[in-house]
Amino acid sequence: MSIDNPMVRFDNVQKSYDGKTLVVKNLDVDIAQGEFLTMLGPSGSGKTTSLMMLAGFEPATHGEIYLNGKPINNVPPNKRGIGMVFQNYALFPHMTVAENLAFPLKVRNVSASEADEKVKRILELVELPEFGSRRPAQLSGGQQQRVAVARALVFEPQLVLMDEPLGALDKQLREQMQYEIKHIHENLGVTVVYVTHDQSEALTMSDRIAVFEDGVIQQLSSPNELYEKPQNSFVAQFIGENNRINGQIDSIEGSTCTVQLDSGERVTADKVVEGDVGTRTTLSIRPERIELDPVAGSVPVTIPGKIEELIYLGDHIRVRMSVAGTSEFIVKVRNRTGRKNLEAGQQTTVGWSPEDCRALDEISA
Ligand SMILES: Nc1ncnc2c1ncn2[C@@H]1O[C@H](COP(=O)(O)OP(=O)(O)OP(=O)(O)O)[C@@H](O)[C@H]1O
Ligand SMILES: [Mg+2]
């Protein structure tokens, strides 16, 4: 994924801690100036390690990292001009908020009067103008987190790295801070590399998301593209919910294919998986793209199904069905006036458009 004049470039970067296993394999990523890029992936997939190499706290085993076109493998962390926010925001407990914020300026030899000015400004930015003289223990978790964000920004770094910065906060505060960080990013135009394993956080905040699995980026795209056009079954499953049906490619026509389901039906799908006729595939269909009991002829693909369970969720009804050999087929039905009466046990049909059905690499059921 190459960008003209990227701010950050990982060029074929690898990392091994023990000299045997690679926890980051061939990382090739360009990050544009001003971009908000999120590394998303399960625990142990190499997100923090990638961030630590960029920050300079861990050496890369192989490859090179560039900042503004210059290799930085031999540049120490404090000379990289990078701000950092960690999960356990680690403010100095014996210092006041203002002293915590002045610290990164002091180590950079900023004069006391200039530091005062910058601390004041950053406290306003994170909406804590009155809190300079308090100690961290006298703040709520969310306020401490804002101070940690302020401390990473106060010396006006070109790049800020955030590793699960909201992990310790409850859901409501977390969502509020997501918007605040996003606004700070927009206001300052600073480049942010953000790590989370929370997919909704990644979708809310990011310009682009890199989905990690086992030290490899499975897909690097905008939130929209990641959800609409997952390139493989791992991404389809990791981002949002999807129904999976296994089968075999029966015929290929350009970018679409016909798939013979293991349960016998034949359906048309977007062909994403590589391979010829006979290739095994897992079809991926989002629950909100499925029509339950569609009017005859209104959608090109219909197959029979049976309603197993209805879960009422207010704005929609979650319908669990037996379809094509699985009893975990989920359909989301909008709860609108005049919708059909649904009951467990009903024999019915489900339908969808071929463009909402992606033939991906097979994963065993
Ligand atoms: N200092 C270290 N020494 C040895 N192995 C390490 C070290 N740090 C991380 N690892 C290993 O490297 C792999 C990647 O770890 P990393 O911390 O990058 O994952 P992560 O994606 O950030 O996971 P999480 O979501 O749990 O924070 C893991 O298998 C981990 O055990
Ligand atoms: Mg981590």
Describe the structure.
With 365 residues, the protein is an alpha+beta fold. It has 2 domains: 8-233, Rossmann fold (3-Layer(aba) Sandwich), CATH 3.40.50.300; 241-361, OB fold (Dihydrolipoamide Acetyltransferase, E2P). 23% of the residues lie in helices and 35% in strands. β9 (208-213) and β10 form a beta hairpin. The protein is elongated, with a radius of gyration of 25 Å. The two termini are 32 Å apart. The model has no long low-confidence stretch (mean pLDDT 92). Residues 47-48, 163 line the site of magnesium ion.
CATH homologous superfamily annotation of the largest domain = P-loop containing nucleotide triphosphate hydrolases
Number of helices: 8
- What structural class do you assign from the helix and strand content? alpha+beta
SS strand fraction = 25-35%
Supply the CATH architecture of the largest domain.
3-Layer(aba) Sandwich
In terms of quaternary structure, the protein is single chain
Q: Determine the mean pLDDT.
A: 92
Distance between the termini: 32 Å
Report the top-level CATH class of the largest domain.
Alpha Beta
Q: Spell the H/E element sequence.
A: EEEHEEEHHHEHEHEEHHEEEEEEEEEE
Radius of gyration: 25 Å
Helix content: 10-25%
How many structural domains can be distinguished in the coordinates?
2
Query: Major beta sheet, specifics?
Result: 6 strands, mixed
